[in-house]
Amino acid sequence: MKKNVLIIGAGGVAQVVVHKCAQHNDVLGNIHIASRTVEKCQQLVDSVREKGSLKVAGELQAHALDALDVEATKALIAKTRSQIVINVGSAFVNMSVLQACIETGAAYLDTAIHEDPSRICETPPWYANYEWKRRELCEANGITAILGIGFDPGVVNAYAALAVSDYFDSVSDIDIIDINAGSHGKYFATNFDPEINFREFTGTVWSWQNSQWVSNKMFEVKRTDDLPVVGAHTSYMTGHDEVHSLSQNLKVPNVRFWMGFGEHYINVFTVLNSLGLLSEQPVTTAEGLEVVPLKVVKAVLPDPSSLAPDYQGKTCIGDLIKGKKDGEDREIFIYNVADHAEAYQEVGSQGISYTAGVPPVAAALLIASGEWDVQKMANVEELPPKPFLKLMNEMGLPTRIRDEDGDRPLNF
Amino acid sequence: MKKNVLIIGAGGVAQVVVHKCAQHNDVLGNIHIASRTVEKCQQLVDSVREKGSLKVAGELQAHALDALDVEATKALIAKTRSQIVINVGSAFVNMSVLQACIETGAAYLDTAIHEDPSRICETPPWYANYEWKRRELCEANGITAILGIGFDPGVVNAYAALAVSDYFDSVSDIDIIDINAGSHGKYFATNFDPEINFREFTGTVWSWQNSQWVSNKMFEVKRTDDLPVVGAHTSYMTGHDEVHSLSQNLKVPNVRFWMGFGEHYINVFTVLNSLGLLSEQPVTTAEGLEVVPLKVVKAVLPDPSSLAPDYQGKTCIGDLIKGKKDGEDREIFIYNVADHAEAYQEVGSQGISYTAGVPPVAAALLIASGEWDVQKMANVEELPPKPFLKLMNEMGLPTRIRDEDGDRPLNF
């Protein structure tokens, strides 16, 4: 029975995490939030107090922390007596926060794969490049480390595990489709940090097909699906964390990730990328100033957290799964639809942050209850999906299924 | 009879000017070229020597000069005994170079209106904002100052003057159409300094219609014309220097300028402009670095002078003129077609630089001969057009006309 949560990061996802933790602080205990800029953490604390999100009276405090500093992170874990660390900071700090958890015995959760700031779009095997190198150490020390427990990766991995266990005798294809049919009303903006956002699309696209890695260029392969609620949308094959772990853990021969993009997004992206403005390599101006173009693009784009108040529309993210059941071909779509304005109403963030921030809090509740306190490193598809998806239903991200029997909620 | 030419600037247009001056150094005398970076000037000198462009043996020298420094410019004019100064440097130095000419008695020529670095797209009356304030001083001192003697402004002003004097009883409309139907083979590039190039299109578009100034947004008003040699092209109403001077000097009620743009150019421009990346106002990156976005865009774009070797295709620039002749409506198109590859072959520059650089040398020859040594400030339409256009025919930019009698060369 672990308790007391330390949240690392103070962006849009952290805002959701702190509100959701507050709503469950009777189980989770004390809540602490830390990032380099303590003022940002304090704003999240203030936001929780304004909305009255704390279920019961309890500690809720902001801290300054450089999460690349393992000793400082260990000290904060110890000082706050946190047994669960939810890392929703920059993807660059994963390995140092994980190390601090290993050395203090705290459970570790994150929502995205580790990245090295100097390397864009590393080649698969992604988890094996960094996190999985700590698997044995976690097991030897009885450390619970749950990797990639946002929505995608995260919930979509649980959908895949559920499909494999309950809906098929054998699965041939997992196609994860992520559509944001919402609108922020700006000329152009990214839904999270542009530096991280664009990195997903500036390199080679890797997918798992016929049980091997296949490479394509970005925007080279697309599909159009008529999806529940949001209707017909075109999505493009993209590399994504869960393609690696699902292909390894579920032994499915075809695992692909598809991200929806409008033509306008693709056009702006293509212009910026073609001109070299998304480069992380510095250029020198005529005046002799050395500048990284991507950092200038980030400076002129809207702050992603500023989008939330005016965001309208819905997201639809799910797994289209094909295989055999009782000798027959079968195809099902397990999915969630989230609403931007409802997310803002509840926790002050837009829907993209909401879908990424609710799942790690559900996982923290399952660690607190012991159900997911597995005392080893695990990707989500290695954990029992039903208790998690049951919590998702209760916490604002209900699961639905569309199959030969129609479209309906999935209850557990 | 003036002689000895000082060329200020060392870009693509200066390259054309120095080659053309060299081809006529029997008349023009000594040739000196000056810019902030003496190495660039020396490259142009070397290029003239490599091509053997000097008609007769004579002085040809490179100099370092900050043309904003009036005293230094006066000293260089005196030292080189230059009686003609061709200013093809940055548009920011016009007023200081003009002042140096006024104080030394040298004739002054430029190809574009003065600009203040801190002010984008000033409102009309453009020439009256800066240059025309020196009209009386030039006349009192007997200074010949010919403004805007490139192609547009410049040759197109002479076309307009010719039409008014020889082809119409009254002119109602002058529409100057500038089409570059060439291709540089790059994803995107500007034909001259991006900082100056984009400034033409980021502000309000001013035109002279029904004898008053009318404002529009960029890309708001367009036309499509089937033009000689280059075929059908769409052009967009743009503010331009000569709209001001022609409207004042020729008393024509409608004067408009139209610049051809492909859809790709407009798309890239629109993306960059909408995101704020063409701004001259500094932004601050997340790391605290203060940067002017436009200077970063300039740094990632190809150097305009690098385009010349691979530039293919032609330009078509001319005046579509409407009015009355002998009581009948009449419409004529006076124009030139230039070829990028031929320009590169002759002087090592692309066609845009060629059309801008040949006319000031023709004007210098007319000052040397006395025909245009008017000892006052003048825009091109105030000078006799025929000797100038006769020289244009001989120097590589022949004039043609398309009217009710067909399409043919114009000889003088």
TrEMBL record, chains A, B:
Pfam families per the record? Answer: Sacchrp_dh_C (PF16653), Sacchrp_dh_NADP (PF03435)
**PANTHER family listed in its UniProt record:** CARBOXYNORSPERMIDINE SYNTHASE (PTHR43796:SF2)
In which domain of life is the source organism classified? Bacteria
> InterPro entries per the record?
NAD(P)-bd_dom_sf (IPR036291), Sacchrp_dh-like_C (IPR032095), Sacchrp_dh_NADP-bd (IPR005097)
Q: Which residues form the Saccharopine dehydrogenase NADP binding domain?
A: 5-146
Position of the signal peptide: none
Q: Which residues form the Saccharopine dehydrogenase-like C-terminal domain?
A: 150-397
| Species the sequence originates in | Halopseudomonas laoshanensis
Q: What is this protein called?
A: Saccharopine dehydrogenase family protein
